[in-house]
Automatic annotation (TrEMBL):
Annotated compartments: Cell membrane
Chain ranges passing through the membrane: 16-34, 69-97, 109-130, 136-156, 257-276
Gene3D superfamilies reported in the protein's UniProt record: MetI-like (1.10.3720.10)
Keywords: Cell membrane, Membrane, Transmembrane, Transmembrane helix, Transport
Bilayer topology term: Multi-pass membrane protein
UniProt protein name: Carbohydrate ABC transporter permease
Residues covered by the ABC transmembrane type-1 domain: 74-276
Taxonomic path: Bacteria, Bacillati, Bacillota, Bacilli, Bacillales
Family: Belongs to the binding-protein-dependent transport system permease family.
Domain of life: Bacteria
Length: 291
């Protein structure tokens, strides 16, 4: 057993202190937003730093969840996250598995073409013209189809599939499975860590989609949550949510409403991570080590 010196102990203590301070710096803004969202508007209007809600209230959340536009935007973001993630995992895993099979004709040429898409990005204008010519303007599919996969994701998942022994595939073929059945029944169940990792990445990207929605979605009825939140943050009142400053005798403070909207937009992704953590901790190293 190696005995720790005074310098080693000091180094560890300093690192722990720095990590604690860094954690507090990242957590405090979210905690402050939560405190303001739960604080009575009259208390907030008095000014000062609110470390905890002196007068607890849920009126800000009730107000938001009663506005049709906000509820509709949550439905749009949920649709994008669920459908976009499912289709993205299917397309990425199918393409990566196909390219991991060495018997595929033209495999190297296809890999080279995918590599080109990583090195050279077409840019905003060609993408916009492509979406327009495909007739996808003001369609939610304009936010899903271009994000089904990426060259980087394909290469990472392909590296994971390369680590799966080909003897499993050969045994399945002997038992009568075709390529689709091998991919669906053998490969995917063995790839849960990779699927969980990429699924989380896809879900976060679709839930937080903003720039593409600004470009392609002009109908406010189809705005995702982030666009509605942006609209609320830049306006001087809560007209984006369809409400008034005074409702049934209750004072509605725009800042408190905005804070509540931020919390509602953040909670779903924070709730998803614990369910995927078991697989995520394994999947973050996908393709980095080959056995």
């Amino acid at each position: 057993m190696i005995k720790e010196t005074f310098t080693d102990k000091l180094f560890d203590r300093v690192n722990i202190l720095l990590l604690i301070l860094l954690s507090l710096a990242m957590v405090f803004p979210l905690y402050y937003v939560l405190s303001v969202s739960l604080t009575d508007p009259k208390e907030y209007l008095k000014g000062g730093l609110i470390l905890y809600p002196h007068k607890f209230t849920l009126e800000n959340y009730k107000y938001l969840l009663s506005t049709p536009l906000f509820i509709r935007s949550m439905g749009v973001s949920t649709f994008l996250a669920v459908v976009g993630t499912a289709l993205g995992l299917i397309v990425t895993s199918a393409l990566a598995y196909t390219l991991s099979r060495k018997r595929l004709l033209g495999r190297k040429a296809i890999l080279l073409l995918i590599l080109v898409t990583i090195l050279f990005h077409p840019g905003i204008i060609p993408n916009y013209l492509l979406i327009r010519d495909m007739g996808l303007m003001n369609s939610l599919w304009a936010l899903i189809l271009p994000a089904l996969s990426s060259g980087w994701n394909v290469f990472l998942m392909k590296s994971f599939f390369d680590s799966i022994p080909e003897s499993l595939e050969e045994a399945a073929v002997i038992d009568g499975c075709n390529d689709v059945n091998v991919w669906w029944r053998i490969i995917l169940p063995l790839s849960l860590p990779a699927l969980a990792t990429f699924g989380l990445f896809f879900a976060v990207a679709h839930w937080n989609v903003f720039f593409n929605a600004v470009l392609y979605i002009n109908d406010f009825q189809k705005w995702p949550l982030q666009l509605v939140l942006r609209q609320m943050l830049i306006e001087s009142n809560t007209s984006a949510g369809g409400g008034n400053m005074l409702e049934q005798g209750q004072i509605i403070n725009p800042q408190s409403i905005k804070m509540a909207a931020v919390i509602i937009a953040t909670i779903p992704i924070m709730m998803v991570y614990p369910f995927l953590q078991k697989h995520f901790t394994k999947g973050v190293m996908v393709g980095s080590v080959k056995e």
